[in-house]
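Revision sheet: structure tokens.
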Amino acid sequence: MARSFSLADCEVIGFDLDHTLCRYNLVESARLIYESFAQYMVTQKGYDKELLNVSPDSWDFCCKGLVLDMEDGNFLKLAEDGTVLRASHGTKHMTSEEILATYGRRQWRHFKTMSGMVSRSAKYYVYDNYFDLPGALLCARIVDGFNQNSPKRKYDFWKDIIAAIQYNYKTSAFKENCGTYFPEVKCNPGKYIQCCPESVKKWLRRLKDSGKILLLITSSHSDYCRLLCEHILGNDFAELFDIVITNALKPGFFSQTPNQRPFRTLENDEEQEALLSLDKPGWYSQGNSTHLYELLKKMTGKLEPKIVYFGDSMHSDIFSAHHYSNWETILILEELSADHVMLPTETESEPLEKKGKYEGHHPKALHSRSKQWGSFFVDTISGAEDSETLVNTWSCKCVSTYSTITIPSIEALADLPLNYRFTRFSSNSSITAGYYPRPPRSLLSSGEPMVTK
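Predicted:
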């Protein structure tokens, strides 16, 4: 495989919307998402009202890559081989001794299933995007409440979380002004949504003018998609995209067959009849990558048009587009811009009240490094005779395995020439190779990149 990658080589450029083209004010949006779940759980399902009160320090719990082990109410941070690096029971940090007693030095029992990107099951849930993360904090606090009020109770709250998601985020919720989330964003879009930088708008136009076919593929419903795009790009946003696909239900868009997931036309944001094939550019709902690819072959006049897709979710966007459709993938990972130098153990274990003197009393943005969980990319694991070894996380391994390159935001490449050649991730290069504009500092050991096995 070529060691370099260029957008100039791609006939088709595809984008996810939420947290990719559309960036959110993460502190505000996290509060709102949390509240949308918590309000439902308290008012509709009878959970403790204390869930509605969230202290600024609580947000430190949120960290991409966490896995909720539903059977025991534990949250896990995993090494690339499935070893448990850190864990909490609810929000309560588990000591090394507690982790050893619970999991040993063995691969977590569901790791092989999960590492095949079966990220949602009846036994665990993987948190890999900013819409999910506030739910991780809520679930952890629910476990805390169960332990306090009835320690022997089963952790059977997940069905209620699903109900909260369906209530607040069903496709009709925007139009019906249902739930907590959509009514608030409709009233105050500027509070939650960042306008697209001028450099990115000009870059999209350059792509279009250079003859690229531009796609927008989002799991958001069409009415919410329109609100976001008008706010970030302007009322003429649709002119930028040859094809807009909403309610795409990723990862099913990539993994399901055409008869399982046909395209549908839209009328006043309502889905209409199913289409037997996709014959022309336009705005559609649901669908599948197979029929889309057939249309792209006609539009480009090529038997194998080269497609690149930008997205923020490893499970829904990056793995799926790479694995099922063999597309090039560009991961948007804001943690890349927030990654700090690895702190010494003594600093990591400083009392929170001591740290607080220097950091102010504000909620952290979700992409900032968590004190409780450490770096998204690496961590230490204890060995024989109290030795510690620096290891890559499972999340970090996924980045280099499934993405072509990884960037902190689209803005990071908007001023580059379209024929700029990036170094891609590959199995025979440094694990830091595909990060642009620079690798995360925590992946550098004594100034030298860590190499994959």
